[in-house]
Amino acid sequence: MQIIGQIQQVQVQRSSLKIRHNMQQYYNPAPLQVVPQLLLTPTGVIGIDDSGYQIMDVHNAAHPYSKFREENGICLGFSSHYREMRARFGTHILDGIGGENIFITATQIFSPADLRHGLQIESQVTHEIIYLTEIEPAPPCVAFSHFALQGGDVSAPQPDNKLVKETLQFLHYGMRGFYATLAAGQKNALIQAGDIVFAL
Q: ∠ at Cα 105 (101, 110), nearest 5°?
């Protein structure tokens, strides 16, 4: 077991980050909401705000417009990957703007092989141990690639196909983030900024 970092923030996607307009699909990060706590469940995540109100993530199976596909209920990303993305695309690539539910401060770049045995999160409040399994790369989408290449300005000219293809390749294999699943038998668990993350 190796400590890989600390949770910097947790957030939910209240609705889809991809919108369609005039036959084009655009990436819009406005539905992202950082929350004090995140409830992990086998069917996705739920944000908990300061008042205790629950905010359903669009990838939770219970969301009315759910995008849940079993493997994508939890999404996580790393600050080290965001440093690489900012170096390539610019400062508009803010921490967590890709929509990851769990954003982890880390120093190294992680490949799927590095996370193949799963992750362990240790709550710094309750000291509960939470296990995440089935870690796999979150496939990058064309809309986010356009957002990255256009400096976040959807009114900018559409990038050419060759550049988009190169961007998709760069964002692949976990650079854009990873999907994860709550381990079988693991009860629902609350996590928050400050919790410690280990690779198993």
A: 85
Quick: pLDDT tens for 107-166: 999 999 999 999 999 999 999 999 999 999 999 999 999 999 999 887 788 899 999 999
> Which amino acid, residue 22?
N
According to the CATH classification, is domain 2-199 in 2.40.33.20? yes
Q: What does the alpha-carbon distance between residue 32 and residue 81 come to, in Å, rounded to a whole number?
A: 19
Tally the C-alpha atoms within 13 A of residue 103's C-alpha that lie toward its C-beta: 23
Write out the H or E segment, with its range, that includes residue 104.
strand 102-105
What's the CA gap between 105 and 87, in Å, rounded? 17
What angle do helix axes 161-171 and 142-149 make, rounded to 10 degrees?
110
Residue 121: CB atoms within 10 Å:
22
> Tokens 């400062």 map to which residue?
91
pTM for this one? 0.96
- What is the phi/psi pair of residue 121, to 5°? -115, 130
Q: What is d(CA 172, CA 102) in angstroms, rounded to the nearest whole number?
A: 18
Q: Are 38 and 190 in contact (CB under 8 A)?
A: yes
